[in-house]
Fold this protein.
Amino acid sequence: MAGAEELAARLAAELAEAGDLTPQWRGPFETVLRHRFVPETVWVQDGDRLVPVHRADDEEAWLRSCYANEFVITQVDDGVPAGPGRVGYEITSSASRPDVVAMMLAALEAGPGMNVLEVGTGTGWNAALLAERLGDDRVTSVEVDPVVADRARRTLRAEGYKITVACGDGAHGHLESAPFDRVIATAAAQRVPPAWAAQTRPGGRVLVPWTTDFHNGALVSFLVQGDGTMRGRIVGNVAFMPLRAQRGKRASLDRHVHGMTQARRSSTETHPYSVLGEYDASLAVGLKVPHCKLIVTPGSGEGAYTVWLVDPWSRSWASLEHEPGTEEFPIRQSGERDLWQEVEDAFNWWDGLDRPASDRWGLTVTPNGQFVWLDDEDHRIDR
């Protein structure tokens, strides 16, 4: 099997050929070996379980996972796996996909000498990439989990990087190292912390994976103004775990879906994929429908599936059953909200706007809150 250096070079070449890795970041990708930052135990998905894979049991498989263009699960259940044999059920930390890392570093537009704050240290690999290009005295990284922070700090030191790794709530930034020229978050925020703008120089850039309860996958690039306001547009499609303080409630069919026989029944001719599977549509629905989580379960036949919409706060839910070749889809709804109707209304609202693409949406964050707009701030969206 190829060695780590060769695997790193292959990965960098693959990302560069795909257009994900810019020339400025290719050197750091080849120099900073990812496997040195990945823990000895990682997890892989097996149905609804997260099963541990130990380096000592299969070195080759572990190393391949480190240099595949895939995310690597590095912590489950906040570090205390809930199942027997260290089996877990919820991903709580990971090493991001290398193509996503490369895309975000390019979008950050950081250069040598800039002072950068990273929110979400994780394994420390991303911080090391930043330090390799900018200088390790120019990078501060904040990690909320003390065990994860300690491991990243020790790994970075062992690799020769003197990066400041602080343990704390990254939503507060890191005032001691401010002001920053750039802030990059590797955790998603629904409410973008104004502290990130307050600790960034005017003209600086803040890069944030922005999420809603319904849609996780919008990378927003903000420019910071002198008054502590920042304005940004969506520049990419990325999905990250939320900031721990913004996790909200996790939807569960077992906990939240009850009363199937008493549910209100109807049907729709709107194909679920057009509402839920199209990125631009799903993004728009998330802007209008709060407290709505999406779950999809396979059906009994090929191509069959059920879409579940769950509000863990009110315990309302809806389901849509999809069978291939049908043009009408049965709906069930239960609770105080008609969740499918809300989602379909939001889809029709987006359709009535002539289906704007993601890059037309913007977000403004002020010291007192945030608001969404379409094309410019004169067209605010009522959420």
